[in-house]
Amino acid sequence: MKNCIFCKIIAGEIPSVKLYEDELVYAFLDISPINFGHTLVIPKEHHTSVATVPETIAGRMFRVGSRLGVAMRRGLDCDGFNLHLSDGTVAGQVVMHAHLHVVPRWTDDGFHWNWRQLKYESDDARAEIAEKIRKHLKLDNQPGDAPAEEPEV
Ligand code: AMP
Ligand code: ZN
After folding, report:
1. How far apart are CA 140 and CA 53, in angstroms?
2. For a pocket test of ligand 1, which of 47, 89, 95 has the largest count of ligand atoms closer than 8 A to its C-beta?
3. CATH value at residue 29
4. Residue 51 in contact with residue 140, Cβ under 8 Å?
5. Over the stretch 80-119, which tens digit does the pLDDT of each residue have?
6. 84 is an active site residue
7. Of the listed 38, 47, 99, 101, which one is catalytic?
8. Which entry of 1, 83, 90, 123 is 20 to 30 Å from 43 by CA?
């Protein structure tokens, strides 16, 4: 897609440090890493949301991300890794081309997810939330799955 920074990276119009590429996905170092080695895995097809990425490609993204995590364990001697994906501006997505973050983690690397733990008011409230999600769960793509295209940064 025109004006998409990640499409331009795939096309070689913007430089990147490539770690892996196949017919479906492209993986390269994040330019502002959480930890050194932080990598992004992106589908070669442009999709704003991961929800519209076809299953074969999404599966490849997850597989490549996991194997990159193992490669980080071996090559960088990290102790673990995070796979992270932000879908939508409110979730922290800045680049509107779906991407999976692979972040190598070391004990005491000084990075913490700001992860809170709420409590459901009651079992009924919890069941109601589950049902609200469950009744809309469709595994095939539907119109309106992707949010409207947002300005590229
Ligand atoms: P997100 O906030 O999930 O949309 O993440 C976008 C990521 O893309 C950020 O971690 C940026 O550092 C990274 N990024 C943006 N531009 C580039 C670039 N030209 N090369 C590599 N990574 C980039
Ligand atoms: Zn794109």
Report:
1. 11
2. 95
3. 3.30.428.10
4. no
5. 999 999 999 999 999 999 999 999 999 999 999 899 999 9
6. no
7. 99
8. 90
